[in-house]
Write a structure and sequence with these properties.
alpha/beta, 4-stranded antiparallel β-sheet, membrane, binds adenosine-5'-triphosphate
């Protein structure tokens, strides 16, 4: 059974249809990317699943999380699911965090809101801060948001999102505001801890490094979907072709981006890998795990099909 099943989702503002006929599924543990140019409808799709559409914007169609409807249900019911069964990490943590509340209290609050006792919630807060690899969790719990770096704040948001063990995590450009090295650490962490993931980005390199499957949106519709490998090596839609051409991704046989860092011994690369001797990040499982290069660009290091 799918964790998330979306069928014929549409989003409207008055008579204007902003998102139409969006259908997809995410299975347990699956990491799915949602890419597309600015204004293509990625955020509205995610917000409609969370029941967080802006005033005057409405969703129709069907979306269900583990069989429970998310669209067209009363706010009271959605409130019980939001932050517990599905949660979301946004681009800018500073706007999502309360500036005058200590970090620990904010992490604990999302658990007490969903029924945990205060002692239980605070005890778990330290574990969660540790799980998102924040150093000195007790000190961080005492801090206010402005005392943390952007990367640390985004880890706090991830801890909050994970607090109630959701079935699905939605991330909307969670690393855009971070510098490249911090971005890579955050992406690795998200890929590791997400139960099932819908990951929104306009960056193909990022989606290739985090997700197994990808949906491409254009003009409010999903125009293409498939595994990263299928979509990035054999794009069917002209828009996807354009996106790939404009990106620094390097599927088999095409131009490589500048790769920084030391190149490991040739024996480290799998046989037949097109990037053999050139790729500093290839590992024996590189076919399914494209990696970010030292300069933050992704390469898709899979074996040639033949
Ligand atoms: N509150 C709103 N009222 C009317 N139109 C809106 C509203 N919010 C978004 N839109 C429009 O809906 C379309 C899709 O917006 P959305 O934010 O989902 O795009 P996006 O793909 O997430 O873009 P970006 O990558 O820039 O965040 C855009 O044309 C946008 O102008």
């Amino acid at each position: 059974m799918s964790t998330l099943k979306v069928e014929g989702l549409a989003v409207r503002a008055d008579a204007v249809e902003l998102v139409r006929d969006v259908s997809f599924e995410i299975g347990p543990g699956e990491r799915v990317g949602l890419i597309g140019e600015s204004g293509s409808g990625k955020s509205l799709t995610a917000l409609s699943l969370m029941g967080l559409l802006p005033e005057g914007v409405t969703a129709s169609g069907r979306a269900a999380l583990d069989g429970r409807d998310l669209v067209g249900v009363p706010e009271k019911r959605l409130k019980r699911l939001r932050g517990r069964d599905l949660s979301m990490v946004f681009q800018e943590p500073m706007t999502a965090l309360n500036p005058v509340m200590r970090i620990g209290a904010q992490v604990a609050e999302v658990m007490t809101l969903h029924g945990a006792s205060r002692p239980q919630a605070f005890a778990r807060t330290y574990d969660l801060l540790e799980r998102v690899r924040l150093p000195h969790p007790r000190q961080i719990a005492q801090a206010y948001p402005h005392q943390l770096s952007g990367g640390q704040r985004q880890r706090v948001m991830l801890a909050i999102a994970l607090a109630n063990e959701p079935q699905l995590l939605i991330c909307d450009e969670p690393t855009t505001a971070l510098d490249v090295t911090v971005q890579k650490q955050m992406l690795d962490l998200i890929a590791e801890v997400a139960p099932a993931l819908l990951f929104i980005t306009h960056d193909l390199a990022v989606v290739a490094s985090v997700c197994e499957r990808v949906l491409v949106m254009y003009g409010g519709r999903v125009v293409e979907s498939g595994t990263i490998r299928e979509v990035f090596t054999r794009p069917r839609h002209r828009y996807t072709e354009g996106l790939l051409a404009a990106s620094k991704l390097t599927p088999r046989g095409t131009r490589l981006p500048t790769i920084q860092g030391s190149v490991p011994a040739a024996g480290h690369f799998p046989r037949g890998c097109v990037f053999r001797n050139r790729c500093p990040h290839a590992t024996p499982d590189c076919e399914t795990a494209p990696a970010l290069t030292g300069d933050g660009h992704a390469h898709a290091c899979w074996h040639p099909a033949d």
